[in-house]
Protein: Noncanonical pyrimidine nucleotidase, YjjG family protein
Organism: Vescimonas coprocola
Amino acid sequence: MPHYSYLLFDADNTLFDFDAANRNAFHAVCRQCDIPDTDETFALYERCNNAMWAAFDRGECTKDFLVVERFRRFLEAMALDRDPALCNRIHLKALGESTLLRPHAEEVCRTLSRTHRLYIVTNAVASVQRSRLHRSAVAPYITDAFISEEAGASKPSRAYFDYVFAHIPGITRENCLLIGDSPSSDIRGANNAGIPCCWYDPHGTALPEGLRIDYRITDLRQLYDIV
């Protein structure tokens, strides 16, 4: 069994419960901007949001453009005259205040930090992630966080992982493991960087084609048997 001394955790929906935080942030936007808050409007926002993040993962837009454009598209589809930049500011503030974690994330980080070095690798907005991490229960166990906005590159690009490797003394492509929920950014990123990866898939999603997946888990505690 290989031993991985350095564990690179994705943040959203791997350690942090982004889905719950995102819904709460949408509630805040609707409440403050007088937007109907229903399952249907949230589903519409999610389609706009996911489309923009997919474009970002493909390198087609910047994060600064993405975070406002998703709301512009949503408001246009709703035929509402609201300020998309204001909606985004409210949304990001609410996200930054959320410290909701995925099941067993705190326990796993606490346990593994005794024997491993834990890092966060994320494409999210830097101000949001720094705020969430600082407030969260996993903060004492994380050595450092590498955020695409600060790295000048994003997952799944090799350039992003080159930046990460340049800032972690002692790490090699053999002694680290990336753990993440996103095939398009986490797993593809690990493939591009030539490092082992573990797909965190709590929902039993269909296996993506064309990707190397070294490990697949549905519960973060399964990492104990891998690392």
